[in-house]
Amino acid sequence: MLLRLFLLFTIIPLAELWLLWWFSSLTNPTVTFGLVVVTGILGAWLARKQGSQAWKKIQQHMVQGQPPTGVVLDGLMILVAGAFLITPGIMTDMVGFAFLIPALREILKAHIGEWLKKRALMQVQAHASSFQAGAGFQTGSEGFQDFTQPGTSVKQEDIIDVEFVRKDSPEKD
To answer: At what angle do helices 12-26 and 90-99 cross, to 10 degrees?
Structure first.
């Protein structure tokens, strides 16, 4: 994880600076600066427009009682696209504009959905196996007793019977 953060915050900006310098040497610094400003403004406008459309779709799904999972992923990708487009650079602009193409987002949604399903399944399996193995339970008077093992039972004196009464308004005496 630390290596990924290192790459994200050092290597990518250095590559972006090199590309901007290279592009500036092909054209001139004014054109390069203009490109950075125009892509930032255009990207922010497009991300805002598509983001508001995604927000309306999310609201429509919620009103209809449907889960807005695909639309939420669209919204997240549009948010990431906006962040990439506001960041000065050629590579980040290309990635940002790519995230704003609906057909590409559909392909990415399928891959991200499968990745999320695998991650969730791994988490559920890890928790289920630790629960079945009794991991996480402390035995004795300090913690929980593990009732998943055969031969364990609850003693009558260990059961606390409680009644719960909800009072919505204070009683007047």
So the answer is: 110
C-alpha–C-alpha distance, residues 85 and 97, integer Å: 7
- Nearest CA to 97 out of 42, 18, 49, 57 is that of 42
Q: What is the pLDDT of residues 13-49, one digit of tens each?
A: 899 999 999 999 999 999 999 998 998 898 889 888 9
Where do the structural domains in the chain lie, given as residue ranges? Answer: 9-125
**Per-residue CA distances from 163 to 94, 98, 116, 160, 166 (Å):** 63, 59, 42, 10, 10
Question: Is residue 136 over pLDDT 50?
Answer: no
Calpha distance 95→37 (Å, rounded)? 16
Residue 19 in contact with residue 90, Cβ under 8 Å? Answer: yes
pLDDT at 86: 86
